[in-house]
Design a protein that fits this description.
By secondary structure, this protein is of the alpha+beta class. Helices cover 47% and strands 19% of the residues. The protein has helices at residues 72-97, 108-133, 139-165; strands at 2-5, 8-15, 23-26, 44-48, 51-57, 60-63. The strands form two sheets. It has a three-stranded antiparallel β-sheet, with no helix packed on it. The chain has a three-stranded antiparallel β-sheet with strand order 4-5-6, with no helix packed on it. Helix 1 packs parallel to helix 3 (139-165). The radius of gyration is 26 Å and the shape is rod-shaped. The model has no long low-confidence stretch (mean pLDDT 82).
Length: 169
Amino acid sequence: MVERNGRGGRFEAVLSGGPAGNGTVRFGDPGPVLARLTAGEQVTGVVWRGTVMALVKDGLRQGSAAEPRDEAQITAGLGTFAGLLAALGPCFAVAYAAGLGGRRPWTWRALGKPLVIGSAVTCADVAIPAFVIGLPWWVVPAVAVPFVAYTSRQLYRYRRSAMNSGTAD
């Protein structure tokens, strides 16, 4: 049954005659299966733990509202940020071991803090739209890592030139 009222509507199918999953199944939208379904038609239901997760008919599949979502894009964003943060530590450690630690531009204020904030913002700005649009999870690190690497290089060059010209903050 597809019932439209105003902006939204009710999207559900009443299933019967199966060994499991009989009853009303709710959907988030009319989708490819529910829109074509008429009373009395037979469909194949994907059942998990006694709950219908999806309906399949004529090769078309539609997930129900109870179907678990695969939200790997957000996890990829968090993992990418953790990886970038983990890579930033050894960079500062090498600079410190080389005798550059504590001297501009290798300070927390000049380089560390902007890179941590920039990495977090970049990962979020890539992961959230990837989730909303439905892009694969691997797009997040593929876009965020090169962008942060380029930004790091440009920030280092800017801080270095500002330091040499005497305008560094």
